[in-house]
Amino acid sequence: MNMEFERKIAIPMEVKEMFPIDAAVQTTIEKKREEIKKIISGRDERILLVIGPCSADREDAVIDYILRLRKVQEKVEDRVFIVPRVYTNKPRTTGDGYKGLLHSPVPGEKPDLFKGIITTRELHMRAVKETGFACADEMLYPENYKYLDDILGYVTVGARSVEDQQHRLTASAVEAAVGMKNPTSGDLSVMMNSIHAAQRPHTFLYRGWTGHSAGNEYAHAILRGFNTKGDQTFPNYHYEDVMYLNELYEKSDLKNPAVVIDTNHANSNKNPFEQVRIVDEVMRYRKFNDNARRLVKGFMVESYIEDGCQKIGEGIYGKSITDACLGWEKTEKMIYDLAEMV
Based on C-alpha coordinates, what's the Rg of the chain? Predict the structure, then answer.
């Protein structure tokens, strides 16, 4: 193998022993996970809102942002259930660019994966302790999931990973609800097959062990738009798209039919300011049709303190260094408006 090995990394159990969660944090995580599952299954009619930066780049700004969400959550908690995005891994289409806190705990500096593992675990732990939220993260690398499996409230499998067998099998063992995105091609059969696999029990190889999963009946769809071969983007959040997804669910034997609408990425053509309009449109047709109301459980929004994005090294506090985000003032108004439409 043409690879240079630098160091052996501590296994998840060892990292958890070094940075354990206490009983209060564990209780919070379990409670929040159950609330999310109730929303996905329709036992709770609140709207799920998974919201936050495209990627978590610096701890102080991320915690500041989540504390702001905390104040808003207290005012809308009877209608909107907020799950902060603390995405510590950043998928790259070409492999180039910032790959997230896991790779680079200090953006722009040399990668340090062990320090990255510690940084991501400490950030998620701090978010729970200081804000009372259980956060979301993307399962970009299935074998790394065990470093955070005891502290996440919600998990996603991304558009580039949803067809991968190891992601599907690992999702079947995740205790939190898992959202499976449609692939970048837009082929919804790929996503539905992934949900099917995640909802079933499996025996598979994981971190050198034979593992047995029970299946995750709260695995569900996320619509994020799609790209053509010419890289032109097309949305799939419209009424007709959701009705088609509803038909696919009706033809399946999947449990807890549900979809979360990703308002950025190809759905907005990466224009973060379109996210407000998309939320409004979906909530309007959700009221028009009972099937849409039952199927659409919530939204995924990319938002941070400042509008837009910046290059690494510019040093603007609370501004994304990856995809452009909706700033705080617009975000706050959007959440209050959303609560009024529930």
Answer: 19
DSSP-assigned beta bridge partners for residue 180:
157, 221
Residue 93's CB is within 10 A of a number of other CB atoms, namely: 11
CA–CA separation, 334 and 125 (whole Å): 27
Token pair 């990856």 in the structure block, residue: 322
Residue 342 within any structural domain of the chain: no
pLDDT score of 106: 84
How many structural domains is the chain composed of?
1
How does residue 95 score in pLDDT terms, banded at 50, 70 and 90? low
Q: From CA 264, how far away is CA 341, in angstroms rounded?
A: 20
Helix axes 328-341, 274-288, angle to 10 degrees: 0
β-strand pairing of 226-227 with 202-206: unpaired
Its domain, for residue 202, covers 12-321
Question: Any idea what the CATH number is for the domain that residue 308 is in?
Answer: 3.20.20.70
pLDDT score at 117? 95
Contact by Cβ (8 Å): 154, 177: yes
Alpha carbon 233 to its chain's center: 21
